[in-house]
Amino acid sequence: MRPIIAPSVLASDFANLQSEVEMLNKSQADWLHIDIMDGRFVPNISFGFPVMEAIKRHAKKPMDVHLMIVEPEQYIEQFRTAGADTISVHYEACTHLHRIVQQIQATGAKAGVALNPHTSVKLLEDVIADVDMVCIMSVNPGFGGQKFIENTYRKIEALKDLIIQRSSKALIEIDGGVNEKNAPLLLEKGADVLVAGSFVFSAADPVQTISNLKSIS
C-alpha cells in the first residue's frame, strides 16, 4: 500500500503561502500537515487560527493538525472550526489523555496522539484502541530541519505490535527528518503516514519530490 504523504506547511515560504498550498493541491500529497507551537511546550512559536483559516481557504486536501502546545483541551473546538480534519495532541501535554481523545472525536475530527523521542510507546497501551493515529516524533519537536533519530525504527516496530495486539485501527505517522533514503525502511517497519517538511519545500522540484515519496512501497 502506498504511504500517506503529509508535507509540513511549517517549512513552506510564508510570504507565498497561497501559492505553496496551491502547489500541494496539484501534487500527490494526501494531507497538509500543520504544526502549531506555543513557545511553552516547545521552544518555538509557529502560527495560530488566522493563518490556519487562510490555509483552509485554499487547501483542497485534509488538514492534519499537530498541536505542540500545553493545555490543548482549551482549543480543540477552535482548531476543528478552523479546518482541522485530524488533531494530534502530545502525550506529554495531556493529564487526561483519554478525555481529550474523546473531545477531539466528538467534534468529528480524527484523534491522534504524538510521542516525543524519549516517550515509550508502551504508555499508549490503555488508549491505543481508541485513537485514530499515533505520531512518532523522529526529531525533538520545535524546529524543522533536524537530524533523524535512528531509534525511531525500533519504536515503529513496538507500536505496530501494540496496535495488532489491541486490534487497533490506528495509523502510524512519522514526523521529522523524513526523506527518500529513510522512507523505505520506515514503511517496511510499519509506518503509514510520512510527514516531510524541509525535504519537500527545499527541493528544486517539490511536486516531483512528493511524487517520489508517494511511489515508495
TrEMBL record:
The keyword Metal-binding applies. This is Ribulose-phosphate 3-epimerase. Binds 1 divalent metal cation per subunit. GO terms for biological process: pentose catabolic process; pentose-phosphate shunt. Keywords: Carbohydrate metabolism, Cobalt, Isomerase, Manganese, Metal-binding, Zinc. The active site is at residues 35, 175. Substrate binds at residues 8, 66, 142-145, 175-177, 197-198. One of its GO terms (cellular component) is cytoplasm. Its cofactor is Fe(2+); Zn(2+); Co(2+); Mn(2+). Transmembrane segments: none annotated. Pfam families: Ribul_P_3_epim (PF00834). Pathway: Carbohydrate degradation. It comes from the Bacteria. PANTHER family: RIBULOSE-5-PHOSPHATE-3-EPIMERASE. HAMAP family: RPE. It catalyses: D-ribulose 5-phosphate = D-xylulose 5-phosphate. Coiled coil: none annotated. The keyword Isomerase applies. Catalyzes the reversible epimerization of D-ribulose 5-phosphate to D-xylulose 5-phosphate. Belongs to the ribulose-phosphate 3-epimerase family.
